[in-house]
Amino acid sequence: MLTSPLKFLIHIPNRKIGKTGVNTILLAIADIFGKAALFFIFVFYARSFGVQTYGYLSFAYGATALLVIIADPGINQFIIREIASKNLHTIAALTRLFIIKAVLLLPYGMVTLLYCLCFDITGRPFLFVIFMMFYFWIDSLHQFIRNIYRAQEKMNIDLISRVNERTLLLVIAIIFISLRTPLLSAFCFPLVALFSILLDIFWLRPFRIRAPLEMVSINLVKIFKKTLPFTVSHIIFVIYFRVDILMLQAITGFESVGIYTAAYRIFEGTQLIPIAFAGSLYPVFSRLSKEDRIGLQVIKVKALIILMPVAIFVSIVLFVFSEEIINIFYGSDYIGSQAVLSILALGIIFNYYYMVFTYLFSALDKQGHVVIFGLIILILNIVLNIILIPIYGPSGAAAATVICELLITLIIFFLTKNLLKIIANEKR
């Protein structure tokens, strides 16, 4: 049975394993299908248009994904925790937060244009950036809607929404790529995103939640104070995961971006397992943080028991068969990606470990811990990239990533010891 690992994991009083098991499977399906569709699009694009043009697309996608933090300052994750904890349960509160996100999209667009101006991103690369900017603009609002359902553990609606969008994107992208139109192939991203969010708004009716419908006065200052920890940690980690692409482009050019992101796409795909697994448990973490700290501690331990053997297996496969994997997906033009993938494979074990604790700290309202170690590894990542990229190019960026993943794991390991002592004392 697919739910048997979850039966082992969630063995606590007053908790039905069936719902949690199904939620995990649904979230995993949505993540796997969504990432797989996006991965196939990027691979097909890379093979069809070559390293340079693929570098344009990868840079535009990475740069705009980083800058969109302006429009998504931790509000999405805040929504999941507050609804699951029954702290945020009115239509008025959700509407205010939605308006805040919409307003924040304006400076996001201005900063993106300013970035292109300052770093002389012109011509075709500029058009790629504009298309991806509008894609993430729309997707940020769409994710807000989906998280309302995720907070209520309605993963089936999240699954329907994401599968609809990615299926449509996959079909249209394949058509445009087959027609050998690189710019139109990028334009299909915002086009499909717009259609999908309109479909969800008029079909799925996202604001039908299990909650009182009274309109209450919401203090926006209090909302910003509550979301501040999420904002800071979100900004730090988005920069951490995307800054290497920007630095590669600035130091070595778009072709190096193409070589690096070809391998990084595969590495990123392996993160689906811990993200889906820990993400589906996040509402449970949030609930138990108030109701049963001992049960929360048990879930954490068992989650690691399940994830770590998977991490070791995936790491070994990617390290040993990196050459074959790159050749199968990208072809001989991306031979430089083989070494990058081998290096990144070493960081998978660390990545799986700290992913669980990121969600756990957030559920315990210990975002301060996440901010501190996130800031440390972000600074280290930038410094290492400055040192290693001029010498080793894309492989240097990969090495910087693995070193930082190791450091995150070590910091979390020692932080967890102190956190468990705090939990024990609070229980007493």
Give a structural overview:
The chain has 428 residues and is an all-alpha fold. The protein has one domain (4-427). It is built from 16 helices and no strands. It has helices at 4-9, 17-67, 75-84, 91-118, 123-151, 155-178, 182-204, 220-252, 254-269, 272-291, 293-320, 322-329, 337-345, 348-363, 367-392, 394-427. Helix 2 (17-67) packs across helix 8, helix 3 (75-84) packs parallel to helix 5 and helix 3 packs across helix 10 (272-291). Mean pLDDT is 78; it is low at 1-17 and 206-220.
| Poorly predicted segments | 1-17, 206-220
Average pLDDT, to the nearest integer?
78
Number of contiguous helices:
16
Task: Report how far apart the termini are.
Answer: 38 Å
- Counting helices, strands and paired strands, the structural category is mainly alpha
The 3D shape can be described as globular
Main pleated sheet: none
Number of strands: 0
Considering DSSP H and I runs of 4 or more, what fraction of the residues is helical? over 70%
- How are helices and strands ordered from N to C? HHHHHHHHHHHHHHHH
**What is the rounded Rg?**
21 Å
Beta-strand percentage?
Answer: under 5%
Query: How many domain regions?
Result: 1
Quick tags:
mainly alpha; 428 residues
Q: What is the topological layout?
A:
Blueprint: H1 4-9, H2 17-67, H3 75-84, H4 91-118, H5 123-151, H6 155-178, H7 182-204, H8 220-252, H9 254-269, H10 272-291, H11 293-320, H12 322-329, H13 337-345, H14 348-363, H15 367-392, H16 394-427
Helix pairs in contact: 2-5, 2-6, 2-8, 2-9, 2-10, 3-5, 3-10, 4-5, 5-6, 5-7, 6-7, 8-9, 8-15, 9-13, 9-16, 10-11, 10-14, 11-13, 11-14, 12-13, 13-16, 14-16, 15-16
